[in-house]
Design brief:
about 425 residues, globular, binds s-citryldethia Coenzyme A, mainly alpha, Cytochrome p450-Terp, domain 2, Citrate Synthase, domain 1
Length: about 425
């Protein structure tokens, strides 16, 4: 019976080493440190820019099979959750490992509903931004500012305090997002309406004007709830990794989440949905697609909303979003950008450049088109991604805090700088120094 062991022979010393291969098919990087050329040697390290082949943690939360296009939260396929659950039920699942019972669902919904209000000083903080401030800049800043409102949040090892901050953050993300939108539009802030569901209340805080009570379109509210479910978690993506890294220093969850939201804002990550819309508006019409694709293949541009570090097949979320699009356009009217996107996808998926690089539409390719049809400006798209991803970030953070194997994240480096040198003292030494 073959042993679960990796045998390594170091030809520099002719020595042989063994490293156990665990049930996940991984070896511990620290096992390589015993491979030395002499007792003074530091030992072997791995060099893995962008962590392409490095597991930073063990997690029970989300499973992705990039080749098969599988995404599961706590064992449930994303398709099943999108069809049968609400975002709050999925947030509960991500955080607690199980879907809520009817009573748990009622209690959890009550908890979240009654924590959507913001401290009035936070509103004045938002007022301080320029009228055209990007909503992600407002969201990142106000998340950090909330850390000053709840100083007890720094007790990260107190389960009760963690749970209280988790409820506050999930509840207030929608309010922060809505207030950043209202500030940008020059409209007064709308207080939460506790009679409404999480998503209906978000739409209320966004779009209520002078009517006595906001009535959300049930189709739009459900479509947004499904989009929230699809965006809720995605294992160790850039922003979740940031949440874990910042949280590993025992920074409070508000500051950790400000870091995670900052990572999400990048155009290669959550900022891609905003860039997709700009790309579609640059293409303008289906007849311009071949010329645009030519520029992408020449390496001039990226096809935004295409490609993924893990999915080397279709992103299952993109498939679901495409089906949600049809329901939304029933209400909002068809969006011509969808025709360009569908034709762009058809052409790209028949082109060797994309097929050989396994570039398929990802979650961001279609989401922006729907958000725009719902009435959101592109600047709001990444904020709409951040709202539900709060559940994933917090589930990952909570898991990391309780993981006995985790400690402050502090990678090593390969030093490629200059060797030791002294500050010149004599005139000759000074004139010998090359400057610049
Ligand atoms: C999200 O990690 C997650 O899980 C993220 C996310 C989540 O839920 O958290 O799924 C959300 O961020 C989705 C991704 C959104 N980003 C975009 O749509 C931006 C466009 N996509 C790319 O920038 C890119 O595909 C990434 C960043 C998503 C993935 O990049 P990788 O894994 O680092 O791959 P790479 O950049 O090394 O590309 C490999 C090859 C390169 O070509 P060659 O150098 O081999 O010739 O594919 C090419 C790249 O040039 N390529 C693209 C491309 N993406 C990769 N070429 C054109 N258009 C693209 N979109």
């Amino acid at each position: 019976m073959p042993k679960n062991v990796l045998t390594l022979t170091d030809q520099r010393t002719d020595k042989t080493y063994e490293a156990p291969v665990d049930e996940h098919g991984t070896i511990r990087a620290m096992d390589l440190r015993k491979i030395k050329t002499d007792p003074e040697d530091f030992g072997l390290m791995t060099y893995d820019p962008a962590f392409m082949n490095t597991a930073s943690c063990k997690s029970n939360i989300t499973f992705i099979d990039g080749d098969k296009g599988i995404l599961r939260y706590r064992g449930y396929d994303i398709e099943t959750l999108a069809e049968h659950c609400t975002y709050l039920q999925v947030a509960y699942l991500l955080l607690n490992g199980e879907l809520p019972t009817p009573q748990q669902d009622k209690d959890w919904t009550w908890e979240i509903t009654h924590h959507t209000m913001l401290h009035e000083t936070t509103k004045h903080f938002i007022d301080g931004f320029r009228y055209d401030a990007h909503p992600m800049g407002i969201l990142v800043s106000t998340l950090a500012a909330l850390s000053t409102v709840y100083p007890e949040a720094k007790n990260v090892h107190d389960p009760e305090s963690r749970q209280k901050q988790i409820v506050r953050l999930i509840a207030k993300m929608a309010t922060l997002a809505a207030y950043s939108y209202r500030h940008r539009r020059g409209h007064p802030y709308v207080y939460p309406d506790n009679d409404l569901s999480y998503t209906e209340n978000f739409l209320n805080m966004l779009w209520k004007m002078t009517e006595p009570k906001y009535m959300a379109s049930p189709v739009i509210a459900r479509a947004l709830d499904v989009l929230f479910i699809l965006h809720a978690d995605h294992e160790q993506n850039c922003s979740s990794t940031t949440m874990r890294v910042v949280g590993s220093s025992q920074a409070d969850p508000y500051l950790s989440m400000a870091g995670a939201a900052s990572a999400l804002s990048g155009p290669l990550h959550g900022g891609a949905n905003e860039e997709v819309l700009r790309m579609l508006d640059e293409i303008v019409s289906v007849k311009n697609i071949p010329a645009y694709i030519k520029r992408v293949k020449a390496g001039e541009l990226k096809l935004m909303g295409f490609g993924h570090r893990v999915y080397k097949n279709y992103d299952p979320r993109a498939r679901i979003i495409k089906s949600v699009a049809d329901e939304v356009f029933e209400v909002t009217g068809r969006n011509t950008r969808l025709d360009i996107a569908l034709e762009l996808e058809r052409i790209a998926l028949a082109d060797d450049y994309f097929v050989t690089r396994k570039l398929y539409p990802n979650v961001d390719f279609y989401s922006g088109i729907i958000y725009q049809a719902m009435g959101f400006q592109p600047e709001m798209f990444t904020v709409l991604f951040a709202i539900p991803r709060a559940a994933g970030w917090l589930a990952q953070w909570n898991e990391m805090i309780q993981d006995p194997e985790q400690k402050i994240a502090r990678p090593r480096q390969i030093y490629t700088g200059v060797g030791q040198r002294k500050i010149p003292t004599t005139q000759d030494e000074k004139s010998a120094v090359k400057v610049g």
